[in-house]
């Protein structure tokens, strides 16, 4: 049951495009979402964009779902990204009422194409931002090669969501060991590694000076901030004390950037034991609700929302901010109570 008499917006909710599966097949690259793979249990739900998804939203009082494509360890080309976005736009348009919005899928390997696609998705298709993988085929975004995409996001006043993505190079060095390759893959991704890497991807952006160059850039991080709230004190203190002496002279502090440029979502984290730390290290108006559907269950997500208030972690106003008000303000969407 819904936790209260208000709307609910979720914004790290996944889908899988047949265009991407065809791209993998034509590239002779193993399909990371194959039905017999680690996430094969979710493949059918990822590809379904109709009654099943809507029924789960309705039964849990979810008003609006912001959808985005699952990670792509093989960077997409421009034509595939465009086809994905066109399909999502058509799905949204064909819905009898406004139940979905979308983050753009971008061909980050080709920044000029990514810039053009981001502009098209926001200006023509009405998308609310973009979701990008934490690495682009193993390459990170502190490389100025990618910065035109962030420039464009600032120009359009939309956020960029950095989502974890597999990284084979990192997996071989840190996670392959005296156990099966399936366990190594799981450890390098969902169980631990790619959350750490998403945090590192953000830290690299900070270290590069991108936030001094773009002080109004808006970034989203999922999974309760990808470990950063739990490391905040040490990370911020080391950067403040040590980096000025080793070439890291930043106009804006790490904590300032965190407070002013970053929003986090709860995607897939439904234990309230995490939340005192998250609430202590993140401003309340920077925390947004997410389920990570279909990997996370809507039922578990709304039960988590209810527990936040029952356990006294937030009051009714705080619950509303997390459940929908913060999303409305950041993304410019409107949600109705279901």
From TrEMBL:
GO molecular function: carboxy-lyase activity; hydrolase activity
Stated family: Belongs to the metallo-dependent hydrolases superfamily.
Pfam families membership: Amidohydro_2 (PF04909)
Domain Amidohydrolase-related: 78-332
Name of protein: Amidohydrolase-related domain-containing protein
GO BP of this protein: secondary metabolic process
Keywords in alphabetical order: Decarboxylase, Lyase
Cellular component annotations (GO), alphabetically ordered: cytosol
Protein's organism: Didymosphaeria variabile
Signal peptide residue numbers: none
PANTHER family: 2-AMINO-3-CARBOXYLMUCONATE-6-SEMIALDEHYDE DECARBOXYLASE, AMIDOHYDROLASE-RELATED DOMAIN-CONTAINING PROTEIN-RELATED
